[in-house]
Amino acid sequence: MLQEYSGVVRRFSWILIAAVLLASALSYGVSYLQVEMYRSTVHVSTVPARPDWGLGNSAKELMRNFVLNLQTFEVAEEVIARAQLDMHPSEFMRLTNVAPDASTFTIEIESRSRDKIVSENMALTLAEYFVDERTAYYAQQDKRDRIEVKIVSSVIQGARYQPQPLINAMAGAVLGFLLGIGLILLIVWIESGFLRTPDSVERTLELTVLGAIPVTNSGSASKTEVREGIPTPAVST
Q1: What distance separates the 2 farthest-apart alpha carbons in the chain?
Q2: Are 229 and 213 in contact (CB under 8 A)?
Q3: What percent of the chain stands above pLDDT 70?
Q4: Which residue from 2, 57, 58, 183 puts its CA 20 to 30 A from 17's CA?
């Protein structure tokens, strides 16, 4: 049994290697067909004015409402006008994600663009709009009931997240390896229906192999090649 498995590895290892190399090369090549995209992130702090348990819970509940209000067509129009961006509000909304983090009382604003500077401008302008809008609203409220809203840091750096050839090539190699294993298993399963060795004959037919009949193939009148014999099952007496 061990010899059969080692034989399978020797016979089909080239399939596995070819599948890994081919999938890696294709993934690496496809990466260069992708458009460059940059991502910028700004964090906005929404901390209660006083360390009160009730006010803290209210701030956490309000964070979801803040996120909802920031993801509207009207806000996108205002931010586009402020930043003087050349895009439609629906496109701005598609390229911007806003998510709350109640554990740190922060709201994360993430923007994506083909241009690094534009992505930074989108995220920072939306954060500034939110801070200005909340500051104006809470200026009319009692100071003890306010939620202090401010940008954690205005110094941001857009990072390229697409394309990533090396990561794609590694993912392609893993996928190629799995496909290669699947192809080898398929071939082995198909070949399992053929009786190729005396051991397989005895194991399948439960008969004892007494000998093998050689098959001859005449290549010329003066020379005869004898190929490997085909085992013939027989019942011993």
Answers
A1: 112
A2: yes
A3: 75
A4: 2
Residue 90, pLDDT score: 95
Residues in the chain: 237
Amino acid found at 152: V
Which distant-in-sequence residues (6+ apart) come within 8 Å of 62 by Cβ?
A: 46, 147
Whether pTM exceeds 0.70: no
Alpha-carbon span 80 to 126, nearest angstrom: 9
The whole-angstrom separation of Cα 100 and Cα 65 is: 10
**pLDDT digits over 103-157, tens only?**
888 999 999 999 999 999 999 999 999 999 999 988 887 777 788 899 999 889 8
**Each residue's pLDDT tens digit, 76-111:** 999 999 999 999 999 999 999 999 998 888 999 999
